[in-house]
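Subject: Re: docking follow-up (adenosine-5'-triphosphate)

Dear J.,

Thanks for your patience while I sorted out the input files. As discussed at Tuesday's group meeting, I've set up the holo structure prediction with adenosine-5'-triphosphate included as the bound ligand rather than trying to dock it afterwards. The sequence and the ligand SMILES I used are pasted below, so you can double-check that they match what you have on your end before we go further.
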Amino acid sequence: MNVVGRIMAPRARRRVRLGPAASLRAYAARVSQRPPRTRFGALWRRHAGVRARTSLVAVVAVGAAVTVGSGLLITFLDRNLTAGVDAAIQLQAQDIADNIRVEGIAGLDLRRRLTERNVIQVLGRDGSILAASPGIDGEPPMTHAAVATGKAKLSRMERLPGGNDEAYRVLALGGITPNNLPVTVVVGQSLDSVQASVDTVTGLLLVGVPLLLILVGGVTWSLSGRALRPVEAIRRQVSDIDAPRLGSRVPVPEAHDEVWLLANTMNRMLDRLEAAADAQRGFVSDASHELRSPLASLRATIEVAQAHPDRADWKRTSEAVLEEAVRLEHLVSDLLLLARADERGLQMQRADVDLDDIIQAETDRLRSTTDLAVICHNEPVRVPGDPERLSRAVRNLVDNAARHAESEVSLSVRAIDGWAQVEVADDGPGIPAQDRRRVFERFVRLDESRTRDGGGTGLGLAIVQQISTAHEGRVEFLDVPVGSLVRLRLPLA
Ligand SMILES: Nc1ncnc2c1ncn2[C@@H]1O[C@H](COP(=O)(O)OP(=O)(O)OP(=O)(O)O)[C@@H](O)[C@H]1O
Ligand SMILES: [Mg+2]
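The structure tokens for the complex came back this morning:
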């Protein structure tokens, strides 16, 4: 963009006013078009698998560690070998100085003291060469530094006067002749052997380190491949699992590691999915089954009446049809409530609900519609909740009690320890202890109720439980010697 364009652009952009959703979309589009910081980085993140990444990280980490280690090794080796050279020339210089002190320069035989790589000079006070070993004979002095008697000075020379390019360690040691003339003994030793050792080790490292890195990369690649094999097996198995085949499980490796944990977690998830799918299928088939009988009864009633229209009692027929239609309507509304609760939880209104009013209304209803003795213990209790749903829950419990009672139903509500407690009791056959939890499942009716006229569909208690859970409450049948007692507890405000 040229300068004018750059200046104009913000103004042009400002002119278009975007709504929040549109500006979010525009931002997302800009971000998606933005080129990745480095092309390699983006490609690497997208395409390099765990194996490649693990291997590269291992190679880089080991490479860095080995490089630092090699550097340190070479430095220490160089220092150690040089220290050895220093010690050797120090010994030799001391030996020569001792010799000069006793026998003077004339008694000195430098040829005898030569090792392969060293050179010796004895300098006078004025820097003149008093004696020199054959290798440096006729050359200028190696050092001009005057060194006091008994003192020593170590230095490094990159090349000797008149010598080749070899580096030397040089020691100048102050000595004295028998007639008290100060001299300087200078001993130099080539660092050639030190350099050769360092070069050899460096060469070995230059070959060995890349080989080591190739080995590390290969081993990591192969080990991570082996470690990922169970993951691949799990992936393959999961890709074959679909709704009709929820029964299969992913393979669980023997080693109790992270993959074992993953496989077990997946299998537990599949257990839950299978159970949910089974429950869904059971619900649909039970629901269809329950819908069939009122529909069949409706159809039979109408068919009989149509077969003999002149003899049919149309008033009774219409009453029977209406009765079945009402049953169907109740059933369908129960099914709808449960299906919606499964889908997104119970949708509830929030209000203050007077439970004592609900209990009173149920008492009045029972008294006016049945011959049962209805006992009511009421105290004012108010809870937050959905008035319609809570009435429905209490009605379901009262209907059950009325259906199974011999002669008496008792209703009560009171507040205890922060809970509202609704109890409905009857003097009927009661529910066997082993069935007291099961009756809250959908479509569960105990044998005795199936044969009873006007028996329900087995959804009433399931609905009560949904409503009580949605109010963070709890519903259960208690152990009583006669009849049954069901208690619904709801948190007070
Ligand atoms: N008070 C009770 N006494 C004895 N058995 C009961 C009592 N309440 C419930 N049950 C048993 O529990 C079963 C399930 O009750 P639930 O209210 O869920 O279904 P239902 O009453 O049969 O049908 P619905 O309530 O859908 O019309 C009943 O069929 C009955 O066998
Ligand atoms: Mg019921």
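A couple of observations from a first look. The longest strand covers residues 168-176. Residues 50-103 form the longest helix (54 residues).

Let me know if you'd like me to rerun anything.

Best regards,
T.
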